[in-house]
From TrEMBL:
Protein name (record): PLP-dependent aminotransferase family protein
PROSITE patterns found in the cross-reference section: HTH_GNTR (PS50949)
Superkingdom of the source species: Bacteria
CDD domains: AAT_like, WHTH_GntR
Domain spans labelled HTH gntR-type: 6-74
InterPro entries for the chain: Aminotransferase_I/II_large, HTH_trans_reg/aminotransferase, PyrdxlP-dep_Trfase, PyrdxlP-dep_Trfase_major, PyrdxlP-dep_Trfase_small, Tscrpt_reg_HTH_GntR, WH-like_DNA-bd_sf, WH_DNA-bd_sf
Protein family membership: In the C-terminal section; belongs to the class-I pyridoxal-phosphate-dependent aminotransferase family.
Record keywords: Aminotransferase, DNA-binding, Pyridoxal phosphate, Transcription, Transcription regulation, Transferase
Gene Ontology molecular functions: DNA binding; DNA-binding transcription factor activity; pyridoxal phosphate binding; transaminase activity
Length: 487
């Protein structure tokens, strides 16, 4: 950046922009306040404000209400984006896809090897660190709740599976998203894993086929296999999400196709946002072909946009959409609280829930109801999104600095992780084992599919604070990847 001529505020903006560009002012650092700028440069209030606003307009700073301005740094690293051609399976493969076999064992081996390793930097998970949650508010509310209901943890509720207060709170939450759900249609679950298990148990029989996005979250693959179902991978585009063309072929070639599972907003691991037109079309497609559409809406609160996207459920006119949301990553991981609204399968899922796990604890439901319904929750999300954005950009910058030529990634518009394509010759399963020996955990692409299609990809977490140790971990990963690429 060259020094700017012109008004003083432009010169000062250029001065601080160069400091950010050279990493003297690092991403996430707090900028001097308006008063400090006035004192330091002997300028007026107007000039100080113009300087900060110009830096914000240029993308160098972000304003946090009632807190101040913080350095954003370089928003987009100098890397090519991952191309859809690298992510999509050939359409012809849909007709001849075979069921998953052994995915549970393969993923369990990877998870267990990571658990036993001496991990110093964990880039494999995707849950925000404790420092990103409002623990003071949660603790205060939990204590108040137990004081109001001292027998809450000692009493048993033998009939209703979901507390009425939780139902009312989640119905209002759904209404804000454009979904009209009656409180009695809300069913509390233990996170999203139970919700997905209940949904697929209700709509499928052993041997039936479930269509999933490719790549997809490995926990879903494990769950499908554990139910004795067959999983069909459907190509997923970064621009529009799951391929309707491939789904149409699947309907014509897979007579036992019963359900489609999607994460429409910030798809895991791609970070895709499905456009409204595609959401509406997918809802109509499943209605036409009498398919259950299981929607995982757990990541939509992390989308960075002036308006939150609409869930697919808001287009559901026939009850074919089973809506599931986990509050694990937005509320409190320790509660494992989730909920679902199952449309035409509500009564069956309610029966299955009671038969399999009885009631979800009332304490976690009531705490979630108070938290989600409070203004503090939206303030928490407003603070959380920019902090996660900074951490994603820091990770992207580190990858751009340290990884070998040919590495590609795409910065998603929100979320907790990055999907990284490695150069030719670098296998993520090998990188995973080598990184563990260095005390670094990553998620290899092989975990997100039952094919070797993503062997040259890794998912790295941006959910934890970026530190010098984190940067060093990316440097080590880059060195290991470069050694593979050179062979």
């Amino acid at each position: 950046m060259t020094p700017a001529a012109g008004p003083l505020y432009q010169q000062l903006a250029s001065h601080y922009g160069q400091a950010i560009e050279k990493n003297t002012l690092r991403t996430g650092m707090r900028m001097p306040s308006v008063r400090e700028l006035m004192r330091r440069h002997r300028i007026s209030l107007s000039t100080a404000l113009q300087t900060l606003r110009l830096l914000e307009e240029r993308g160098w700073l972000e304003a946090r209400p009632r807190v101040g301005y913080f350095v954003r740094g370089i928003a987009v690293p100098p890397l090519e984006e991952v191309a859809d051609a690298d992510l999509s399976a050939p359409l012809e493969a849909v007709a001849g896809a075979h069921p998953f076999a052994g995915i549970n064992e393969r993923i369990s081996v990877l998870v267990e090897s990571a658990r036993r390793a001496d991990v110093k930097v964990d880039l494999g998970g995707a849950t925000p660190g404790p420092e990103l949650f409002d623990t003071a508010w949660l603790n205060k509310t939990a204590i108040a709740l137990l004081r109001e209901q001292p027998n809450l943890l000692a009493q048993s509720r033998s009939t209703a599976t979901t507390h009425p207060d939780f139902q009312a709170a989640m119905a209002l939450r759904a209404l804000d998203a454009g979904i009209r759900v009656a409180p009695h249609q809300v069913l509390a679950t233990v996170g999203n894993t139970e919700a997905m298990h209940l949904a697929l148990t209700a709509v499928c029989q052993p041997g039936d086929v479930v269509a999933v996005e490719s790549p997809t979250y490995y926990g879903l693959l494990q769950g499908v296999e554990s139910l004795g179902l067959k999983t069909l991978e459907i190509p997923c585009s970064q621009a529009s999400g799951i391929s309707l063309e491939a789904l149409d072929l699947a309907v014509r070639t897979q007579p036992r196709l019963r359900a489609v599972v999607v994460v429409p907003d910030l798809q895991m691991p791609l970070g895709t946002l499905m456009p409204d037109a595609q959401k509406a079309a997918l809802a109509a497609f499943c209605r036409t072909h009498d398919l259950a559409l299981v929607e995982d809406d757990s990541y939509r609160p992390f989308v960075e946009a002036n308006e939150r996207p609409r869930p697919i459920k808001s287009w559901d006119t026939s009850g074919h959409v089973v809506y599931c949301e986990s509050l694990n990553k937005t509320l409190a991981p320790g509660l494992r609280q989730g909920w679902m609204s199952a449309g035409r399968w509500h009564e069956r899922i309610q029966m299955l829930k009671f038969a399999q796990s009885r009631n979800t604890p009332a304490f976690s439901q009531l705490l979630a109801a108070r938290w989600v319904g409070a203004p503090a929750f939206e303030r928490h999300l407003q603070r959380l999104r920019p902090r996660l954005r900074v951490q994603r950009e820091q990770a992207a910058q580190a990858i751009a600095r340290h990884f070998p030529a040919g590495t590609r990634l795409r910065l998603p518009p929100g979320g907790l992780s990055l999907w990284v394509q490695l150069p030719a010759g670098v296998r993520s399963s090998v990188l995973f084992r080598e990184a563990l020996r260095e005390g670094i955990r990553i998620a290899p692409g092989a975990m997100f599919s039952n094919t070797d299609r993503y062997e040259h990809f890794i998912r790295v977490s941006c959910a934890q604070a970026f530190t010098e140790q984190t940067d060093e971990a990316y440097r080590v990963l880059g060195r290991l990847a470069a050694a593979q690429a050179a062979v």
